[in-house]
Design goal:
- This protein has two domains: 2-314, 3-Layer(aba) Sandwich (Rossmann fold); 321-423, no CATH class.
- The radius of gyration is 24 Å and the shape is globular.
- The termini are far apart.
- Helices cover 37% and strands 15% of the residues.
- The chain contains twelve helices and 16 strands.
- Helix 11 links the parallel strand 14 (345-350) and strand 15.
- Helix 3 runs parallel beside helix 4, helix 7 crosses helix 9 and helix 11 runs parallel beside helix 12.
Length: 424
Amino acid sequence: MRVLITGGAGFIGSHLCDRFLADGHDVIAMDNLLTGTTDNIAHLIGHERFLFIKHNVTNYIYLKGPLDAILHFASPASPIDYLELPIQTLKVGALGTHNALGLAKEKGARFLLASTSEVYGDPLVHPQPESYWGNVNPVGPRGVYDEAKRFAEALTMAYHHYHGVDTRIVRIFNTYGPRMRLADGRVVPNFIQQALRHEPLTAYGDGMQTRSFQYVDDLVEGIVRLLHSDETEPVNIGNPREFTIREFAELVNRLTGNPAGIVFKPELRITDDPQTRQPDITKARRVLGWEPKVQLQEGLVRTIAYFDELLREEGVKAYTMKDVDQLGITRITAETLERLAGTERLHVSFDADALDPSVAPGVGTPVPGGLTYREGHLLMELLAESGRVTSLDIVEVNPVLDTRNQTAEVMVGMAASLLGQRIL
């Protein structure tokens, strides 16, 4: 088969690229990289049966040659994304789906729409079968995503009935795994990166809302089976085992060895956030012979390992002394840190004018005679871990404040938050 995957550089789309290539098919990944990244498909570049096209599917899609299948996965999918990108979310659900369906009609290709459990809204039926029509607020903050997907489903069925396009609809429930973004904003990456930094996990609400988590490999298997089936009505693909957010947080802390616990922030919960989410997968079992295989703990172990490596690459993990040399930082050595951690007062100097004003905190630029942001952040984490420094001086080598970066304020704030001690 020759397959087009829109959103092919995204979390799920990139895993689908891997699977279809492994099954011997030709794959075209199309993505405008709004929320996707070429990092997810870098390992496929140069593959003889893989092609990447950067394109926004809300514009007309042109492809030469035949197509056997189109999997439409282009869309922001995290609340943090569709709250920041509401118009783009609606456009890709409407115009993007229309363009992809038009291409399927032109090519005579089978079309599979990536829909979502969010079409059920904050459900009044539990668990949610495909026959449930949902409880959605169309004008709430989540409405842009919920209604975009509901419209996309309606448009897909219209093309199926009116134009005879061979269509499939998958309703995807909470999915996690490698290639989720650090800044995704959903509960899995949020909890894992907080746990790896040994920070308290922040639960939005009282922790009693429920979710069902499926590992990405299980989802991909379900999608492949649905594509090759004769089922044209929507099918739920998700893990029916339900956990409270509190239970999930406790599991993440246990697997990462995080002693910092959980904090509950009811005020941070997004309006219309569902209280319950659990798929009824009776239809998937009956029609596709599918059910999830990967247990939550097993999938989390794999996902934690991925995020641990990602955080190490970005230099933001709560490193211990023995980890320092692995970062390639030559000016701050483990021996130096051991010596500094044995003092009660630390004098940190840095050169504000030597910092690139375009560099955000956390990304270092070498500073003659001083520290980079990255080194400073790492140093303070290590000293905070030692618990032996009681006060800290922050001094600029050049006394002229770089107001573009507000360097001194950033460094002092960083120290205060990490050390939780008196800043002189």
